[in-house]
Design brief:
By secondary structure, the protein is of the alpha/beta class. The protein is built from 14 helices and 15 strands.
């Protein structure tokens, strides 16, 4: 199968992870733009270069397209950019003819509203007014705690511009240009302008999903059509109706939504399932290690299912549950194991995990070495770094020595015999993400 994949930006979880997952099945040829064409924290994507890349594509079976990348230059520029609606319309009209005759799986984001005063990924004024803008949105515009008129106008104008672009994409969907079109709810709360926009798009016939970074991977899974029945098993079944951080739906609905988007069948029982999806969910409130938000860690005994299983570790946002992972690794059965993920939001974890599961299941040319490599990277990143080392360092630094105990343990489990060749880097020069290179 020949799949073209246009990521959100050049982060490892958007770019490298797609390639690592695709390598699990050697029958899949992934066409992905040169990394230099994609945006980063401060640089927009080269939209002209990406359009030329799309124009020159070989014959493909599917196109996974992050529309924000072409429209705005990336997910972050979609919130920071100053282009007018008319300028953006001219740009996207160049995309339209490139979609005709192709099986296109696309997504476009609904602009997020982060609940903080960090402007690293927002417009400059977010450092002073971000939290108040969130509260204004959460109240439906009823509570305005002194936000200057010019700032509020700019913010609302940007929202309206992006919403109008999404409505254009919805019209394209009705014209038959997309096999699948998803509007993503990035870093969402239970209420707000973004939630209202999602409802409006749904009324107009659009399909929305909570999440963002993982959705191209979920669409990759959807493009690989296989009949697989999955049964979700929660470690805390009494709390599956609780809502994860940065999301607006219960963790159970998040799981079911990702299963549907990835093209899985929901099994009605463990006995009738091909694969068990173990979800390490939280009690009442999801933890967040870096922010210091506590939750009760896993305190039971983990028993691996006696049939194929995969693990979504969602007890904490932005990192693994240490007590849970230690049990998982002690009892890991590689013969039945289909993957682990525990990064960032619940939706991020689920989408990336399920993409790997989809490709591993009855792969035409299964590459076990690629699967083991993917697991090494996920445990080193989601568990070793995010849950343990990230909180110990004040800024990006050499962490090779600190990672050695984790490398040694994981190398023995996943048969990676060259831990001295593992390298770590900070692609966006911040602690939030690292790139693990094997």
């Amino acid at each position: 199968m020949r799949i073209a994949f246009v990521p959100i930006d050049n982060r490892p979880v958007c770019y490298s992870l797609a390639k690592d997952i695709a390598e699990i099945d050697g029958s899949i040829k992934l066409f992905i733009p040169p990394r230099k064409l994609l945006g980063d924290l401060k640089k927009n994507a080269d939209t002209e270069g990406l359009l030329k890349w799309l124009e020159n594509l070989e014959t493909i079976d599917a196109l996974i397209l992050s529309l924000d990348t072409i429209t705005y230059g990336g997910l972050i520029p979609s919130r920071r950019g100053c282009e007018t609606l008319e300028e953006l319309k001219k740009r996207i009209n160049r995309i339209k003819p490139l979609l005709a005759g192709r099986k296109v799986y696309a997504f476009s984001s609904i602009m997020r509203i982060s609940n903080n005063n960090y402007n690293e990924e927002e417009k400059e004024y977010w450092k002073d007014w971000g939290k108040k803008i969130f509260e204004y949105s959460f109240s439906g515009g009823k509570i305005n705690d002194g936000i200057p008129d010019e700032i509020l106008k700019d913010y609302l104008d940007t929202r309206k511009r992006n919403f109008e672009i999404n409505k254009i994409y919805l019209e394209w969907q009705k014209e038959g240009l997309f096999d699948t079109l998803i509007f993503s709810k990035d870093d969402c709360a239970e209420k707000g302008f973004n939630v209202e926009e999602a409802r409006e798009l749904e009324k107009l016939g659009g399909k929305t999903k909570t999440g963002a970074d993982e959705i191209p991977l979920s669409l990759l899974a959807r493009a690989v059509e296989k009949e697989i029945a999955i049964y979700p098993e929660f470690t805390e079944p009494l709390y599956k109706n609780c809502i994860s951080n940065y999301e607006d739906v219960s963790i159970e609905k998040s799981v079911l939504g990702q299963l549907e988007l990835c093209g899985f069948k929901l099994a009605d029982s463990k006995d009738n399932a091909d694969i068990i999806l173990v979800v390490n969910n939280f009690i009442e409130k999801q933890g967040e290690l870096v922010m210091g938000w506590e939750t009760e860690p896993f305190s039971k005994t983990f028993t691996p299912p006696d049939k194929p299983y995969c693990i979504a570790d969602a007890r904490y946002a932005n990192g693994a549950d240490n007590t849970f992972v230690n049990q998982v690794l002690e009892k890991l059965n590689l013969n039945n194991f289909y993957g682990y993920a525990g990064w960032n939001t619940t939706a991020n974890t689920l989408g990336s995990l399920l993409a790997g599961v989809k490709l591993k299941w009855k792969a035409e040319k299964y590459n076990h070495k690629a699967f083991l490599k993917l697991q090494m990277i996920r445990f080193l990143d989601d568990w070793a770094y995010q849950a343990n080392l990230r909180g110990l360092i004040n800024s990006p630094r050499d962490i090779k020595e600190l990672m050695k105990p984790y490398e040694t343990k994981l190398s023995g489990i996943f048969n990676y015999l060259s831990p001295n060749l593992i390298q770590y880097s900070y692609p966006w020069n911040r602690k939030f993400e690292i790139e693990v290179s094997l």
